[in-house]
Here is the input.
Amino acid sequence: MDAVYRMQPGFSPSYMPRGSLEMWSKKSFGKLHSGQECSLYTITMKSGVTISITDYGLSLVSFTFTQNDSTRDVLLGFDDVTGYEAHDFYSGCIVGRVASRIANGKFKLDGQTYQLSLNNNEDTHLHGGFIGLSKVIWGSEICGDILHFTHSQKDGTDGYPGNLTVTVTVSVRDKSAGGRVTGSFLSLDMHATCDAPTPINLTFHPYFNMDGHESGSALDNKLTIFDYAGYLPMDPETILPTGEIVPTKGTPFNLDVSRIGDLIEDVPGGYDHTFSLCSKAGFIVPAAEIESKDRKYRVRILTDQPGIHVYSGNFLNGMKGKGGACYDKHSGIALEAQNFPNAVNIQGFPDCILQVGEEYKKNITFSFIHSNE
Here is the structure.
């Protein structure tokens, strides 16, 4: 299993010695309806893994494995930026200022009630609202095998208090054993500061189908959640947590190297649930792993977030994706390392308030693993 890292000032997997001498390339990814140009950044690792990300919403566009002259792209997505602008299923993008749902779009902070935008069923605030962090072009800088992205969100955007400045550092490295390259890491370091107290919960929202993004249902993928205390039951009407953390033994939420399709029939509506990780604050630990049916490819997610949210693409509705692929219900499994949904309103959930003078610091790392490891 990948190592556990302890977060210290100025230290994360991004700053570990890297085995990659590859450079990020940049090309046009098309234009928005406004006429603004967007870019696509791509790097190919020694392991044969190719990673692409766009500056529009920081969407992870492709994770492509190349092995023995065969290729497999395991991320749902679109051929150019127009698809990301047109659709709202958050394909691969960063979401925030607060990821997941906030009940009625309301919260109280320092005695004041804030009303956020209601962009989900007109009664819920979802993934930061109509604009959030996913419907904007981020500033970017290439520094060899490192990408730096920045965005400043103004006070009042989607109803949130305070100006927020977010930076995301994207870095890569190969891993080796016995003198050969066995896989690669992609590390996303998320930092934020504010000028007024505000809730924050950032994550990325990639949809995986380890059999290939164009292969249809992802229910044959195998999913493992590592070292977790339980799952958060959801109200079936609001898809909001009840506030409990429930053990998974004997339930369809006991995800231990499980074929997703073997369990999902016992989950009304499909998976849209957060698992409470047993990680300690400041430690980056394995949270989840998803594996192809043929067992050739795996992606492992490591994080210092308190939870991992599993969403089984229950509302994907047949939109056309990369290469004309059709993304129907359950075509992808989203794995989102994050704080608990509606934490701003539920006592006992991890604190999500960023104070003036503090720095929000979280990491999500993807480990790409070939079958010959």
Remarks:
- Residues 5-19 have pLDDT under 50 and may be disordered.
